[in-house]
């Protein structure tokens, strides 16, 4: 039972939890389907009709129609009568505020993040581990930062990014092992392609306090990231990254200069908010796991 509950809690989407919960009598299926519909709205798919939502979610169109109508009545969706489609409503923003308000360290960190972003002409962002994704919870940037413009709420891959690897480095060993299992189960091909790079990133966080990503997620953006901390009671893991257009980087600059700066920034943030860094035990385990 504990294993099943843990699996559901770390699922990367409402759809995955819904699929796993068919035999759970206490599970509110209708509520879950409504959340699946809401999660279908992403960057690039901000205006969707009932048929499109049915195709994206696998939920029958009549059910989708009832869900979208209800969500629109509640303010979580907004109906565009001219296009006969829905977009996310303003009330959805209310759901994010209590979570962000509990992360007061973001306000402390932002001026320092902005200073580094301006200095290197890139972006500096804090991410929160959510299943097999990272969710941006704070970001600062200079002017032109290239094709990737981070924003609060944006999800990115754990296994393909420096930010994700750095967040994984904050996890206790058992949780880190479970995350690897989850990534593998969700996308075995992706895990096979990035397993060694991912584990090398964990080892680099253990030995140097940061890890680097050389365009694995977006070819034209190189990045470094450092572990921030793991809030054990809330089971939240944070990391901080710095992304820079590759053409702006001098040879050796990413790891020789910017990596140590992002690690120092992480140290400063932890010191100001009195947060503990990743445990030595977890770092040793990560390093051991990285060996062939």
Write a concise synopsis of the structure shown.
The chain is α+β, with helices and mostly antiparallel strands and 292 residues long.
Radius of gyration: 20 Å
Number of strands: 8
- Succession of helices and strands: HHHHHEEHHEEEHHHEEEHH
Proportion of residues in extended strands: 15-25%
Helical amount among residues, as a percent range?
40-55%
Quaternary state reads single chain
What is the residue-mean pLDDT, rounded to a whole number? 87
Q: How can the largest sheet be summarized?
A: 6 strands, antiparallel
Q: For the record, give the distance between the C-alpha atoms at the N and C termini, rounded to a whole number.
A: 33 Å
Could you characterize what this model shows?
Helix content is 50%, strand content 18%. The protein is built from twelve helices and eight strands. The chain has helices at residues 2-9, 14-20, 29-39, 50-57, 61-74, 92-101, 105-120, 162-168, 173-186, 188-208, 253-273, 280-289; strands at 77-80, 85-88, 123-130, 133-141, 155-157, 211-214, 221-231, 236-245. A six-stranded antiparallel beta sheet has the order 5-4-3-8-7-6, sandwiched between helices. Helix 3 packs across helix 5 (61-74). The longest helix has 21 residues, at 188-208. The chain is globular and about 55 Å long. Mean pLDDT is 87; it is low at 1-11 and 280-292.
């Amino acid at each position: 039972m504990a294993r099943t509950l843990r699996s559901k809690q770390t699922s990367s989407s409402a759809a995955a939890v819904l699929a796993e919960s068919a035999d759970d009598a206490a599970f509110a299926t209708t509520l879950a389907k409504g959340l699946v519909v809401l999660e279908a709205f992403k960057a690039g798919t901000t205006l969707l009709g009932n048929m499109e939502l049915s195709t994206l979610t696998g939920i029958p169109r009549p059910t989708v129609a009832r869900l979208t109508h209800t969500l629109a009545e509640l303010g979580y969706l907004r109906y565009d009568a001219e296009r006969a489609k829905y977009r996310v409503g303003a009330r959805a923003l209310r759901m994010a505020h209590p979570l962000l308000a509990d992360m007061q360290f973001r306000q402390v960190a932002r001026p320092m993040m902005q200073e580094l972003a301006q200095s290197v002409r890139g972006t500096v962002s804090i991410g929160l581990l959510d299943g097999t994704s990272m969710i941006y919870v704070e970001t600062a940037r200079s002017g032109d930062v290239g094709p990737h413009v981070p924003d609060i709420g944006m999800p990115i891959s754990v296994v393909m990014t420096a930010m994700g690897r750095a967040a994984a480095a904050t996890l206790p060993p058992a949780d880190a092992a479970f995350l690897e299992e989850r990534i593998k189960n969700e996308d075995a091909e992706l895990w096979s392609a990035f397993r060694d790079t991912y584990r090398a990133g964990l080892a680099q966080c253990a030995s140097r306090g940061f890890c680097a990503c050389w365009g694995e997620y977006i070819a034209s953006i190189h990045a470094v990231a450092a572990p921030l901390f793991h809030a054990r009671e809330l089971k939240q893991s944070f990391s901080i990254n710095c992304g820079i257009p590759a053409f702006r980087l001098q040879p050796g600059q990413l790891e020789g200069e910017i990596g140590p700066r992002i690690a120092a920034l992480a140290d400063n943030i932890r010191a100001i908010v009195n947060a503990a860094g990743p445990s030595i035990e977890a770092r040793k385990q990560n390093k051991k796991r990285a060996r062939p």
